[in-house]
Amino acid sequence: MRISKRAGDWYISFKYDECQPKPLTKKRAIIGVDLGINALATCSDRTTYANVKAYKQAKKRLTRYQRRVQKKEPGSKNRAKAVKKLAKTHKKADATPRRRQLACGTRTKQ
């Protein structure tokens, strides 16, 4: 088990052994998926899912917080607080929207 703290949030990751699941009896059409940079995913049936431009949308905010970090004196508590705020902004700007879009795009309708 591993416990870590990133951008003010705690994460726990652990590994476990799982017994083999029973195979599903439902059969569906098989398609191929290509994950890319320009498009999040392109399926073999020509369906394309657009990529989130999260960084471009948050660029102004990130620039402001990076400037605030740069102006603080190294080793000070105010710099540590500014770095923490910048890390949270990076997390909100990059990881969260991508994760949300990926989760919404991969849900299957039954």
List keywords for this structure.
single chain; 110 residues; alpha+beta; 3 helices; 5 strands; 43% helix; flat
Structural features, described:
The chain is an alpha+beta fold. It has a domain at 53-110. Helices cover 43% and strands 19% of the residues. It is built from three helices and five strands; from the N terminus they run E-E-E-E-E-H-H-H. A hairpin with a 3-residue loop joins strand 3 (33-35) and strand 4 (39-43). Helix 2 runs antiparallel to helix 3 (77-106). The longest helix has 30 residues, at 77-106. The radius of gyration is 20 Å and the shape is flat.
Distance between the first and last residues' Cα: 36 Å
- Strand composition percent: 15-25%
Order of helices and strands: EEEEEHHH
Q: Which residues form runs of ≥5 with pLDDT under 50?
A: none
Which structural class fits the helix and strand makeup?
Answer: alpha+beta
